[in-house]
């Protein structure tokens, strides 16, 4: 079961990459900064770098999501991870950029509740400004897109005022700035989202006696970083198109504002140890710049569809995780 749990965790890292495909590329493609292959190659490299330079604050938060006996942890991780992978896979096939992170947290909570009762779920809350447990993590995931959208809208208005009277030659550096901020988003994404899988894998290794204390091994860090980056390059074309053009088709200024706001939001969250969803932050950033520019150009039906999908993610993933544990018991799995 331990080996299966590690496989599922690595599979979750790949699905995180699939759902994260638009994070560093949507604004570049919306601004027509480069062809799709070049943008995705750039995203791959920066995601790997982000995963390799990641700290452990987010991983520690993931470590405290469930409190089940060591012998049951692998089964709970398998159920929660499969719930997240399944829900994200279905959504991705329909081009809807849902959050694999929200699905994972909900799936783990549902699985742990069935495996060990309500006390087996690390409900948590806030230690000052630092989130912990399921409630704290979900709160951070919900609040961060709002922060990203508001920040992006404000920055878009500021840039519009600054550049209103700028000569065309003065606008040329915007292309390079957009690449810089896109790289920062990819780096932050690789760090924050990568730590989610790293934290689960390390917790499992501690529970099974392969590690004496919680510290992410280098081989786990490298494996997750590469798999996550591979996911961003392998399966996200439809999601990239949704975020880059179906929410709002903007110009380089829009891309710069959206990516700057998203990078700042995710980096601050990582510093706080908040495992936020970069996908929702970037999507909300694109919506934010749209509302600050020309609201009629925002494709609101697509926005509503995605918001509904996010709202359904928690109950659906929790139910799937709970059902998988219950089904495992029927098959004689010790959980």
List the helices and strands and how they pair.
Elements: H1 2-19, H2 26-30, H3 36-52, H4 57-63, H5 70-93, H6 100-116, E1 125-127, E2 130-132, H7 133-163, H8 168-171, H9 173-207, H10 218-234, H11 237-246, H12 252-272, H13 278-292, H14 300-330
Antiparallel strand pairs: 1-2
Q: What this model shows, in words?
A:
With 335 residues, the protein is an all-alpha fold. The protein has one domain. Helices cover 75% and strands 2% of the residues. It has 14 helices and two strands, in the order H-H-H-H-H-H-E-E-H-H-H-H-H-H-H-H. It has helices at residues 2-19, 26-30, 36-52, 57-63, 70-93, 100-116, 133-163, 168-171, 173-207, 218-234, 237-246, 252-272, 278-292, 300-330, and strands spanning 125-127, 130-132. The chain has a two-stranded antiparallel ribbon. Helix 4 packs parallel to helix 9 (173-207) and helix 9 (173-207) packs parallel to helix 12 (252-272). The protein is globular.
- Number of E-type strands: 2
Strand ordering within the main sheet: 1-2
Average pLDDT, all residues? 82
Structural class by secondary-structure content: mainly alpha
The rounded distance between the terminal residues' Cα atoms is: 11 Å
Total number of helical segments? Answer: 14
What are the main properties of this structure?
335 residues; mainly alpha; two-stranded antiparallel ribbon; 14 helices; 2 strands; 75% helix; globular
């Amino acid at each position: 079961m331990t080996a299966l749990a590690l496989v599922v965790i690595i599979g979750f890292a790949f699905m995180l990459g699939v759902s994260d495909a638009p994070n560093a590329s949507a604004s570049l493609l919306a601004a027509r900064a480069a062809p799709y292959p070049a943008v995705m190659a750039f995203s791959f490299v920066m995601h790997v770098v982000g995963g390799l330079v990641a700290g452990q604050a987010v991983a520690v938060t993931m470590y405290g999501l469930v409190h089940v006996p060591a012998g049951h942890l692998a089964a709970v991780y398998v159920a929660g991870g499969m719930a997240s992978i399944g829900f994200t896979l279905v959504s991705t096939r329909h081009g809807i950029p849902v959050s694999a992170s929200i699905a994972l947290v909900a799936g783990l909570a549902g699985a742990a509740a069935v495996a060990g009762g309500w006390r087996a779920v690390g409900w948590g809350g806030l230690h000052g400004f630092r989130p912990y447990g399921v409630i704290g993590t979900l709160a951070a995931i919900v609040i961060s897109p709002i922060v990203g959208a508001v920040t992006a809208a404000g920055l878009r208005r500021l840039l519009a005022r600054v550049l209103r009277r700028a000569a065309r030659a003065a606008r040329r550096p915007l292309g390079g700035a957009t690449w810089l901020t896109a790289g920062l988003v990819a780096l932050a994404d690789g760090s924050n989202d990568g730590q989610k899988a790293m934290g689960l894998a390390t917790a499992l290794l501690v529970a099974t006696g392969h590690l004496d204390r919680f510290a992410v091994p280098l081989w786990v860090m490298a494996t997750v970083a590469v798999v996550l980056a591979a996911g961003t390059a392998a399966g996200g074309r439809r999601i990239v198109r949704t975020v880059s053009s179906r929410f709002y088709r903007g110009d380089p200024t829009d891309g710069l504002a959206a990516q700057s706001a998203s990078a700042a939001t995710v980096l601050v969250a990582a510093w706080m140890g908040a495992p936020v969803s970069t996908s929702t932050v970037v999507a909300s950033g694109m919506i934010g710049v749209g509302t600050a520019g020309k609201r009629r150009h925002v494709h609101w039906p697509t926005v509503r569809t995605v918001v509904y999908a996010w709202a359904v993610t928690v109950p659906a993933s929790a139910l799937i995780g709970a059902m998988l544990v219950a089904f495992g018991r029927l098959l004689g799995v010790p959980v």
